[in-house]
Amino acid sequence: MHEQAVTGEQETSALRQLEGEIPDAALRRPVEVSEDDGQCVAADAKCFNGEWARWTDARKGPWTEALPLISTEMYLYRRLLDCTGYFRRGDACLADPYEGQKAESLKEGLASGAFKEAVADHVAALDDPPVFKAMVGAKLHRFIQTDLWGNQGDLALSPMHLENAGAAASVSRADKEEHLLQDESQGAIDLLLASKNKAPPRVDIVLDNSGIELLCDLLLADFLLSHKFASSVHLHAKGEPLFISDAMPKDIASHIAALEASQDAGERRLAANLRAHVG
């Protein structure tokens, strides 16, 4: 959590109380949200509160006995949002406590040589249709793989895995393919190629992390739309910043704005294309 997120005595006290609960205290229900307090979650506050209550009430023991681990991790991050006042009325309401980390990861992503290379490859395909047509399958594969490996930019993982901290530098490394447990990209490529000149499908991208991954998501979206592989691309963002780098609607806007302000002509062109698609 960024230092700037903890600005008052109330937030500091809440964090210290949470620290004192781990690992031996019993789990407590997270703060309930109201219809007026959330973004995506506000439309379904009753379900949101009910699921957290159900999960917490089903675990009567201490933190160490709360399984599965992924659920306990989600619970910890949910409680951190409570500590910072994310769902509480006031100045901190809906203020992303990880804004600082996100800004740093966006800066790192824009400075990535791998991302600049991918953008340059995309712009070159736009400017030279005959060459692109001859390599269309390879280009699709390249941008899908680049988007996939951007997931290493998950800030919730970077403290534990040094490679994730430097994900922006290696999103397009071909040697990573050997680490895939299951690769169904060719099926997606075949589907997109078969429908390109007929009825291009709607493509949905479920967003995960801000920074290099969201930049790669936006690059893939523009690639699909610019070459008529998709009739539309729907980006599904997160409702709240649960896992540090979670990509939210505001992060999409900030990443496009950062591309617009870039010194790189290719990145500015990508931003202009994205604005045109959105508008």
Class by alpha and beta content: mainly alpha
Q: Tell me the quaternary state.
A: single chain
Strand count: 2
Poorly predicted runs are: none
Global outline: elongated
Radius of gyration: 21 Å
Number of separate helices: 12
Q: For the largest sheet, list the strands in their spatial order.
A: 1-2
In helices, the fraction of residues equals: 40-55%
Q: Give the averaged pLDDT, no decimals.
A: 85
DSSP strand (E) fraction? under 5%
Can you describe what's shown?
This protein has helices spanning about 10-20, 45-55, 70-85, 100-110, 115-125, 130-135, 135-150, 160-165, 185-195, 210-225, 250-260, 265-279; strands spanning about 200-205, 230-235. It starts with 8 loop residues before the first helix and ends with a helix. About 30% of the residues are buried. The chain is mainly alpha-helical. Helices cover about 50% and strands about 5% of the residues.
